[in-house]
Amino acid sequence: MTTAVVRAPESEDEWRQCHRIAAQGFNGPLTPAAEEEQLPKFHRDRCLAVVVGDEVAAWSQVRPFGQFFGGRRVPMGGFSPVVTAPEHRGQGFGSRVTAAQLPIMRDRGEVIAGLYPAQTQLYRGNGFEVAGVFAGRTLPTRSLHHLRPSASVRLRAGTADDLAAVKGCYARFAMTQNGWLDRPDVWWDNIVPGDKIGREQFLYVADGEGGALAGYVRYAHAKARPPALGYTIQVMDFCAAEPDVALALWRMIGTSSTQAEHVRISGAVEHPLLLLLPDQDLKTTDEIRWMLRVVDAPRAIAARGYPAAVRATVDLDLADRQCEWNAGRWRLTVEDGSATLDKGGDGDVQLTSNAFSALYSGYAAAGTLRRTGLISSGDTRSLSALEAVFAGPTPSIADFY
Questions:
Q1: Are 354 and 129 in contact (CB under 8 A)?
Q2: Which candidate, 206, 193, 298, 200, places its Cα nearest to that of 247?
Q3: Confidence class for position 225, pLDDT limits 50, 70, 90
Q4: What percent of the chain stands above pLDDT 70?
Q5: Residues ≥6 apart with Cβ < 8 Å to 313
Q6: pLDDT per position as a tens digit, 148-165
Q7: What is the mean pLDDT of residues 199-225?
């Protein structure tokens, strides 16, 4: 029987096998042109493969991101893709090539990992848990036409020259949204090619002070679903902290109602538009819950932010099969918006890495995790303290990676 080995791809043939497996697994084009376009985009120093004989059976790639929690950037690695060749499925290779990345991520300083699961249970076996929502919602374009800013806001068409200011505006806004990505330049280049602005993507901005932007919207036109005519407006980015700027941007989109019957957006689970629209006609059309895994528990706790008014000390007993450096008893101390996780304590709250990850993101409250058995012990005081420490709206995300 041929032994399966986990290692980085070594030859161009193995990299081409990786591309073919991913293209087939995710219904991408299997053409020489697509291969030549995609191969240079691989993060080759961030890939591992399961190799059986001279075949790549499965492989994984970890993209370099940050993710915002509590107003602070947490270093994060995003798995994209994890894929197994059809003839090798059912042998645990996907799980194996995922777990093998975790110690490497820790060494790089990526203290949490994220992914969009095709199969939730596979990643639960590696310590991941559901941690936030990526949702697509639609609403009638005419509903946005009813919105009115209380002050005059001047909007203008953006160009590729505005991209630096757009990145800055996004970063300031994303920091306030639990779960949003800190996008590296390589990701910006992927989602907003400068030569597509004004042709395949449309950018509108509101100028702020000192060359900064007060807000922007980036969208595209998509084919409307029959029997609707015209097109659908697909909003890819919307960032505006001030109410009047947000209202002006939304209303501008609403002026397309004569041609675009619907607008599709993503964002928070309870979207702020629900508080502004004349009717409750913001409908969820599709959604997926992304998963998170704490890779380095003490550094992950130190990296994120917390409610400034919360002071708490809670003793944890953390079970972690893959990342043994996380396992054991820890004392969580929170004060003045920061926290530490130090070895010790009496282990009052017993939980797995899965529960710890869902708690860390703020997706699941400690009481919920206790009722489902994912936290196996803990008194009322400790659970209440954990709920206060990780309190916040359900994490969302603006990117599908």
A1: yes
A2: 206
A3: confident
A4: 100
A5: 331, 332, 333, 334, 385
A6: 998 899 999 999 999 999
A7: 95
How many Å apart are CA 308 and CA 302, to the nearest integer? 14
Residue type, 52: V
Gap between the Cα atoms of 370 and 294, Å rounded: 19
| Phi and psi torsions of 380, nearest 5° | -60, -40
Listed in sequence order, the residues at least 6 apart from 1 whose beta carbon sits closer than 8 Å to its beta carbon are none
Judge if pTM exceeds 0.90.
Answer: yes
Q: Residue 270 above 90 pLDDT?
A: no
- Burial grade of 169 (CB within 10 A; 0-12, 13-18, 19 or more): buried
What value does the mean pLDDT take over residues 219-246? 92
Is the predicted pLDDT of residue 81 greater than 80, yes or no? yes
pLDDT at residue 300 greater than cutoff 90? yes
The residue behind tokens 């093998």 is 100
For position 67, what pLDDT does the model report? 98
Residues 350, 355, 360, 363, CA torsion sign: negative
d(CA 190, CA 170): 16
3-state secondary structure the chain: CCCEEEECCCCHHHHHHHHHHHHHHCCCCCCHHHHHHHHHHCCHHHEEEEEECCEEEEEEEEEEEEEEECCEEEEEEEEEEEEECHHHCCCCHHHHHHHCHHHHHHHHCCCEEEECCCCHHHHHCCCCEEEEEEEEEEEEHHHHHCCCCCCCCCEEECCHHHHHHHHHHHHHHHCCCCCCEECCHHHHHHHCCHHHECCCEEEEEEECCCCCEEEEEEEEEEECCCCCCCEEEEEEEEEECCHHHHHHHHHHHHCCCCCEEEEEEECCCCCHHHHCCCCCCCEEEEEEEEEEEECCHHHHHHHCCCCCCCCEEEEEEEECCCCHHHCEEEEEEEECCEEEEEECCCCCEEEEHHHHHHHHHCCCCHHHHHHCCCEEECCHHHHHHHHHHCCCCCCECCCCC
Q: pLDDT at residue 1 above 80? A: no
* Residue 263, C-beta contacts closer than 8 angstroms, at least 6 positions apart: 138, 139, 140, 141, 144, 232, 233, 235, 253
- What is d(CA 271, CA 287) in angstroms, rounded to the nearest whole number? 14
Q: What integer is the mean pLDDT of 116-145?
A: 96
Token pair 């603006």 is found at 398
Query: Tokens 């790089």 correspond to what residue?
Result: 108
